[in-house]
Amino acid sequence: MNWLFGSIAFWVAAWALNVWLANSPWRERRAVRIAIPVIFGISILVLWEGVVRGLQVSPVVLPPPSAIWARILQSFDILWRDFVQTAIKGAVSGYVIGCTAAFLTAILVDRKPFLRRGLLPIGNFVAALPIVGLAPIMVNWFGFGWESKAAVVVAMVFFPVLVNTVQGLSEASEMQRDLMRTYAAGYWQELVKLRLPAAMPFIFNGLKVGTTLALIGAIVAEYFGSPIYGMGFRISTEVGRLAIDMVWAEIAMAALAGSLFYGLVTLIEKWVTFWHPSQRG
């Protein structure tokens, strides 16, 4: 029980420290803003470790973080191969294809208003399709390789990016567009110099939503057919073998990959839309 009481005491102390930092005069400093979530995350891991060890929870039910970390170190080569197969080949390739196709389609929808009435309602319908119904169809069409996972990712990210881009292209006010026409600007000049910059916050909103959907789609698709490696394949296999520490190791790798992917898109957004009020300060 010493583990349990010690972890609870650590969590209470970390909570008090976070409250003090959040209300301190230095709360707006970058170091403090980074420290608060780091301390909170460490306290959650310590509490998890203490509860599992103090209550003697079976590792089949819930392994402690130390066991998960040990599994990551022991099986890093397997985890890395699964990461490359799922995150790089499946998720990233499908994400790039889907987002590019969505952007080009949004330009076409903007040029042809009748497509807005015909295509966007279909997009809402497709976005509501369950991935567990879509994934086996894609696997049947494109095989067991990464191509079927990329196809699922394309289907998942296409319409969120399309809808956000179409909405963003209509953000420029009529007065601004009249001014561009006063200067004899054509459609493409107006698009590049006025409407695309105004649409960038909306476009990046769709891109950030797509980062989470991409990895989820690739992992779920691997449940319905995969080579002998991949995050989804490994999770489904190790669950059957009751190797729950390996399952959690894959989950940790997937969470890290998703966070890094989201963070990369956010950094690009800050660089591209530095002028926007949301990025100031």
Descriptive report:
By secondary structure, the protein is mostly helical. It has two domains: 2-57; 72-279, Orthogonal Bundle (MetI-like fold), CATH 1.10.3720. 80% of the residues lie in helices and 0% in strands. The chain contains eleven helices and no strands. Helix 4 (76-111) crosses helix 11 and helix 7 (146-169) runs antiparallel to helix 9 (187-221). The model has no long low-confidence stretch (mean pLDDT 83).
Key terms:
281 residues; MetI-like fold; 11 helices; 0% strand; flat
SSE order in H/E notation? HHHHHHHHHHH
Q: How many DSSP-defined strands?
A: 0
Unreliable spans are: none
Portion in beta strands: under 5%
**Major beta sheet summary:** none
What topology does this entry show?
Layout: H1 2-22, H2 30-54, H3 65-74, H4 76-111, H5 113-127, H6 131-142, H7 146-169, H8 174-182, H9 187-221, H10 231-240, H11 244-272
The gist of it:
Helices cover 80% and strands 0% of the residues. It is mainly alpha-helical and 281 residues long. The model has no long low-confidence stretch (mean pLDDT 83).
